[in-house]
Amino acid sequence: MNSDVIRLLPDSVANQIAAGEVIQRPASVIKELVENAVDAGATDISIILKDAGRTLIQVVDNGCGMTPTDARMAFERHATSKIASAADLFSLHTMGFRGEALPSIAAVAQIDLRTMQKGESVGTRLLINESKFEGQEPCTCVPGTNLMVKNLFFHMPARRKFLKKDSIELSHILHEFERLALVNTNIAFTLIHNDVTLHRFGPGNLKQRIGSLFGKNLEQQLLHFETETALVKIEGFTLFPRFARKRGYQQFMFVNGRNMRHLFFHKAVMKCYEQLISPDTQPSYFINFTVDPATIDVNIHPQKHEIKFEHEQAIWQILEATIRETLGKSQAGSTLDFDSDAPDIPLFNPDANIAAPGDDFDPDFNPFRAASDNHDAGTWKPAPTYEHRKNISSDWQKLYDSFARRRDDAFTEACAAADMTDLVESRDCTLLPDDSIIEKAPACFQLQNRYIICSSKQGLMIISQHRAHTRILFERFMTRLSEGPLSSQILIFPEDFELSAARAAILQTYSKEFSDLGFAVEKKDDMTWNLTAVPIQLHDAAPSDTLITMIDDIAETENPDPTMIHRPLALSMARSAAIKPAQPLSVADMDSIVADLSRCSEPSITPDGLPIVIIVNNEEIVQRFATR
Question: E strands of 342-405, at which residues?
Fold first, then answer.
């Protein structure tokens, strides 16, 4: 009896296994094909898509092209022209080197390749279907390579059903395209989706490419830095601290022309900003490292995103020093806007006839007299008599008494505020139970213009006014959305705002949901949009900033169900419209917030899980005043 159970997998199965690591979605295909075009010396690359890459991914380049034999060999596993020995892994100057990308793509799609070398008159056409070679023939084509990937995952229903809706997949493609375009600024790129040109730009420098991808507004916010040592050359751009954002920030790192993710270096940048921005925001940065290829290892991740540096600690210190120096030099002049229009100052004319200033004044005006006594229906009254002046001077003592009373009251309030601060910082503060009932207090008062202090049956209740109002508005918006579209108001002066292609795709996909929320937008040009109407409930929030924040929220959730989009949109709108943490409130405002919060379904936490209310228990208060 033969008990051998180990067998060699067929090439088709092995290729599909490899494809599971390398090809995860259409964006992965674009990454591999564009990097091959870059390695081929292309100076112009066009990407043509149908249905976010499900139906067609076509990459056309003007690179060196391939011979008929090379075209056939390129789809064999571990066939590559990039390296010849293991030692070449530590002197890489190309994006690819494993020889896995093309056979992995061929294992999950249909391939139609047309290529010709420069100087030749006839090219070759190659057809592959599910790793099966179907034919090769001469053809007429332009020098370079034209590779079409059709019907991705067509024979793998399990893999195909895990693809997101087209808008989400297109967003991933656009993010990958941004990384490729930023690292290859010397190459002209064109991106077309469903016959619509999303991007088209020629070669340039990094700053120009950033402006082409993300808008001129971001380009004007950039801070340039550059340093070079024996270990590394670091150059790129970061942003002024005041432009840090909670969402929608752009963070890119490159090494030797290759995209990478490096958490250690990211922490170095964040350390430079930790005292300059709030903890819930992130700065944008574009950092390019140039090092000796022998000091890095790129062969530790299937998609080559993670890279190991030999001199990691030293590069951390150089990066941190560079960013700190750049921020330090820029802070003094960052508030001056030299691009703004100067005030219109008239030229001096010595011959001008200028009237002498008048001496109109009322000799009977007394600043210590009430305004109604000084002026009545446009006529000035006579000056006060001597007896009247004596009565005025006798009121100085009353005025001083009033100042003294206010000083004593301010001292009392300061003491009370200090005690409350100690209570807020106590270590045993509990969340408000869902079944607790807010006790009607004689009055609420505000602490540090951020917290509402009032009493409850369990003790002293401290409420974050911004989070409380966010919860209240969120539930109102969700209830209102369930009843139908929100009412909107037309802006007298429409607002212009810029969106990257990735964010514009989301806006177009969820146009109906935004319309139901009361937003009306029109496309102005490739990157500029016009906001013409906003929800009435938006109050004093910046309309365009609110809309951009909501688009960023959608991009992060990746929720393909349109019926669930109301929650992140309502949350974003509630955050923007809520009262600010440092906003002074009247007693009536505080009472209203406390009452509305008590009627919410979840009064203790915000929709995104942050605490709204803490309670300092009665027992703890008693213990703090107990005699020791």
Answer: 375-376, 379-380
**Alpha-carbon separation of residue 297 from 1, 95, 307 (angstroms):** 48, 13, 6
Rounded-to-integer distance, Cα 373 and Cα 380, Å: 8
Task: Give the count of beta carbons closer than 10 Å to the beta carbon of residue 31.
Answer: 23
Q: How far apart, in whole angstroms, are the C-alpha atoms of residue 327 and residue 343?
A: 29
100 contacts 22 by C-beta, under 8 angstroms: yes
- The beta-strand segments (E) located in 456-511 are 459-464, 488-498
The string of pLDDT tens digits covering residues 356-374 is 666 565 666 666 665 555 5
Q: In whole numbers, what is the pLDDT of the chain averaged over residues?
A: 77
pLDDT at 39: 87
Say whether pLDDT at 328 is over 80.
yes
Strand order in the sheet with 285-290: 222-228, 233-239, 285-290, 251-255, 258-260
Q: Which two tokens stand for residue 120?
A: 């030749």
* Rounded Cα–Cα distance for residues 261 and 304 (Å): 9
Comparing 17-21, 200-204, 307-311, 565-569, the range with the smallest average pLDDT is: 17-21
Query: How many whole angstroms separate alpha carbon 95 and alpha carbon 257?
Result: 8
* Residue 205 vs residues 169, 224, 284: alpha-carbon distances, Å: 28, 12, 18
Mean pLDDT for 144-152 is 92
DSSP 13-60: HHHHHHHHHH-SSHHHHHHHHHHHHHHTT-SEEEEEEEGGGTSEEEEE
CA distance 200 to 501: 11
- Alpha-carbon distance of 549 to 533, in angstroms, equals 17
Q: Nearest 5°: CA angle at 63, between 59 and 68?
A: 85
SS3 assignment for 387-415: HHHHHHHCCHHHHHHHHHHHHHHHHHHHH
Q: Compare 542 and 132 and report the one with higher pLDDT.
A: 132
Q: Which residues contact 520 (CB under 8 A, 6 or more apart)?
A: 488, 490, 531, 532, 533
Q: Are strands 44-50 and 375-376 parallel, antiparallel or unpaired?
A: unpaired
What does DSSP say about strands 188-193 and 44-50: parallel, antiparallel, or unpaired? parallel
Tokens of 626: 């107990």
Closest CA to 297 of 238, 268, 255: 255
Assigned token pair, 589:
């405002």
The dihedral region occupied by 449, where left means phi > 0, alpha psi between -120 and 50, and beta the remainder, is left
190: pLDDT confidence band, cut at 50, 70 and 90?
very high
Name the residue with higher pLDDT: 397 or 296.
296
Closest of 23, 27, 85 to residue 57, by C-alpha: 27
Calpha distance 373→370 (Å, rounded):
5
Residue 160: CB atoms within 10 A of its CB come to: 14
CB neighbour class for 600 (10 Å; exposed up to 12, middle 13-18, buried from 19): middle
User: Other CB atoms closer than 10 Å to residue 121's CB: what's the count?
Assistant: 6
